[in-house]
């Protein structure tokens, strides 16, 4: 089956796109990744080498020809990308179109009449991802709605999300398919019997959704009781004001020797192996691969009980703790830091829980959806 994955920008910097494209290839599918970015794609940057059988069609690729680059830049200012995508779809004739974001959906639907069935992926809590559309003016909402009418199936990441897509989008079919999670053998798990006395946070560093400052605030409440424990905040930190706010808090509470903004690394697995606890104070997620991958390798977790997806993957008292607020986060962090045997128990449970998301299981679900959609098409 020929699958066209549509991802407008940063296509190779998206962990999920590269990983899933490779998995589809492993199942014998033909995969085309379609994007429209002037930047050269370069290497993946996510720790995965893209399978050479995956074809990447970059409709606005920067070249070594300066005159051609000027033409591309001018053309992109004048001609909307959906005309370029339409031409590509007509040439490729894919069996399935996978749209990553609403922007990608617009690019493969507007002023187009191709018959390729579309799966719109919802890679977040649906109201968060789709609320921008609901806030648009009447004309923009009309055009958005026309695009969403062409969606065959919405793919969501949690069962609880099936009822969270607004009727405005007129969803015909909603299917839950979670992200595939890398699996580890028993002898490959993090060794929690050896204390590292380290708590890590692995995700981008930003206030609105990920809110790692709440982890630091919680740790500050108990830091004096655990002078030999450290907290490391790992991830892309693009927001200077927020970074400075965190740095100021660390200094004000004299945590310079215990808390650090550690930066970005490609060795995510190495980070997990260097830690005792993965703390994830996000306000909501679609299906956090940071949590899932860390659980698969055997780390216990702490998150907030109000955080969508986080509060379903983390099962309170089983593979980690769910906290009501920052004070409760600190109390449960303290409990987990104080009890190595509890960490080991939670870590083992976390590893077992992630077996439900093994790639072969998730791929079976995708294949079943593909068969159903193409059957309906016929």
Structural class estimated from helices and strands: alpha/beta
How many domains in all? 2
What is the CATH architecture annotation of the largest domain? 3-Layer(aba) Sandwich
Helical fraction equals 25-40%
Largest sheet: 7 strands, parallel
Number of helices: 14
Biggest sheet strand order reads: 3-2-1-4-5-6-7
Strand content: 15-25%
Keywords:
globular; 15% strand; single chain; Rossmann fold; 378 residues; 14 helices; six-stranded parallel β-sheet
Protein architecture, described:
It is a single chain. With 378 residues, the chain is α/β, with parallel strands linked by helices. The chain has two domains: 2-180 and 358-377, 3-Layer(aba) Sandwich (Rossmann fold), CATH 3.40.50; 186-357, Rossmann fold (3-Layer(aba) Sandwich). It contains 14 helices and 13 strands. The protein has helices at 15-26, 66-78, 81-92, 102-107, 126-134, 138-148, 213-220, 240-252, 268-273, 289-296, 310-313, 326-338, 340-353, 359-377; strands spanning 2-6, 30-35, 55-58, 96-99, 118-121, 151-156, 174-176, 198-202, 230-234, 259-263, 277-279, 301-304, 320-323. The protein has a seven-stranded parallel beta sheet with strand order 3-2-1-4-5-6-7. Strands 10-9-8-11-12-13 form a six-stranded parallel beta sheet, sandwiched between helices. Helix 7 (213-220) links the parallel strand 8 (198-202) and strand 9. Helix 7 packs across helix 12. The two termini are 14 Å apart. Mean pLDDT is 93; it is low at 42-46.
């Amino acid at each position: 089956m020929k699958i066209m994955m549509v991802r407008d920008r940063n296509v190779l910097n998206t962990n999920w796109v590269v990983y899933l494209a490779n998995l589809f290839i492993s199942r014998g599918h033909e995969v085309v990744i379609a994007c429209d970015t002037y930047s050269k794609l370069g290497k993946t940057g996510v720790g995965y080498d893209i399978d050479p059988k995956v074809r990447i069609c970059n409709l606005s690729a920067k070249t070594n020809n300066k005159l051609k680059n000027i033409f591309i830049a001018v053309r992109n200012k004048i001609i909307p990308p959906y005309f370029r995508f339409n031409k590509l779809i007509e040439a490729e004739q894919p069996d399935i179109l996978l749209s990553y974001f609403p922007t990608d959906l617009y690019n493969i639907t507007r002023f187009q009449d191709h018959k390729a069935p579309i799966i719109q992926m919802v890679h977040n809590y649906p109201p968060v991802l789709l609320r921008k559309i609901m806030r648009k003016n009447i004309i923009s909402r009309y055009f958005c709605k026309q695009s969403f009418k062409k969606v065959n199936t919405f793919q969501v990441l949690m069962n609880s999300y099936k009822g969270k897509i607004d009727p405005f989008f007129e969803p015909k079919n909603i299917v839950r398919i979670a992200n595939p999670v890398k699996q580890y053998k028993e002898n490959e798990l993090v060794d929690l019997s050896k204390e590292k006395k380290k708590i890590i946070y692995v995700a981008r560093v930003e206030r609105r959704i990920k809110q790692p400052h709440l982890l630091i605030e919680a740790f500050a409440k108990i830091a004096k009781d655990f002078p030999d424990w450290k907290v490391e905040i790992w991830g892309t930190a693009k927001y200077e004001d927020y970074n400075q706010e965190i740095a100021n808090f660390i200094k004000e509470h004299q945590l310079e020797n215990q808390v650090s903004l550690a930066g970005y690394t490609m060795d995510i697995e190495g980070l997990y192996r260097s830690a005792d606890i993965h703390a994830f104070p996000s306000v909501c997620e679609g299906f956090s691969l940071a949590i899932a991958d860390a659980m698969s390798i055997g780390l216990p977790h702490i998150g907030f009980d109000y955080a969508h997806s986080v509060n379903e993957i983390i099962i309170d008292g089983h593979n980690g703790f769910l906290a009501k607020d920052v004070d409760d986060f600190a109390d449960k962090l303290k409990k987990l830091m104080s009890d190595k045997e509890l960490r080991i128990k939670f870590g083992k449970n976390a590893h077992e829980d992630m077996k439900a998301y093994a790639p072969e299981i998730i791929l079976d679900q995708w294949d079943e959806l593909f068969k159903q959609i193409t059957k309906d098409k016929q």
